[in-house]
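Quick question, first post here. What does this chain look like in 3D?
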Amino acid sequence: MRIDLNADLGEGYGPWRMGDDAAMLEIVSTINLACGFHAGDPEIMRSTVAAARDRGVAVGAHPGFADLHGFGRRRMPGITLREVENLVAYQVGALAGICALEGHPMTHVKAHGALGNAINDEADMAMAVGRAIRAVDPGLAYMVMPGRPTADAAEELGLQPIFEIYADRTYADSFNLTPRSRPDAMVHDPDEALTRVREMARTGRIVSTSGKVLEGRVDSVCVHGDGPTAVETARKLRAGLMEAGFEVASTIG
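> Answer (accepted):
Ran it through. C-alpha cells below.
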C-alpha cells in the first residue's frame, strides 16, 4: 500500500515560470525535472533540485525533444534512434551534474511530451531512450506506462521500472494517453481525478475512454504541474490516497 505521487516541474525558462513549483514540492514525493530542451535552464534546475533535497523529494530527469517553442509537444518526424539516444543522454547527464552540485542524486528518468508519447507507441524508440539511461547510469529507474513498449524496454535492458498512471489524463484504447487535441483528453476536476486514481491504485486496472480494460502494476501517480488545478488536484490526491490506506512516498530508495 505504498504509492508515489509525482509531478513534472522546472518548466520555466530564464525569468519566466510555469506552474506553482513551490506548492507542488510541499505535496508530491517525486519530481521529474525539465532539462533545458523543452523547458528549464541550469539555474531553474539547480534551485529546484535544492528545494527538492530540502523537502526529501526524489528527483528524476524529464528529457524531451529540442523544442522550446512547442514545449516539447510536437512530433519530430525523421528523428533517428541515434539522435534520440544523444538528446536523452545529454539531458540526463546535465541533470546528473546539477544534482551532484547539490548533493541530491537523481533516481530515475521519465520522457516528456511528444517523446514520451512516441516511446509508448514505438518499441525501437523506447529502447533508444532506455539505452541512453543505462549508458549514463544503469542504476537509474525508467518511468514507464503499464502495457506499453517502455515497460518491455526496461525489462529487456535490466532497468528498474516505475509503473506510472496519470491523474489528469485519459487513456486511448492503446493505453497510451488520449491525444491532447481531443476534448476528452484532460481530467480537470480534482474530485474526478481522485476517484479515478483510487480505483486504478486499488485494482491495478486502467480503463480507456471506450471502456477497454488493462490490468497492471501501479507504482506512481502523475499530476502535471502546469495545469490550472494542479496544486488542488495534488493536495486532494495525497489526502485521498492516505485516507484510503496508502503511504505516499517515493518508490526509489
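DSSP finds eight helices and ten strands in the chain.
The helical segments are 21-25, 42-55, 81-102, 113-119, 123-136, 149-157, 190-203, 230-243.
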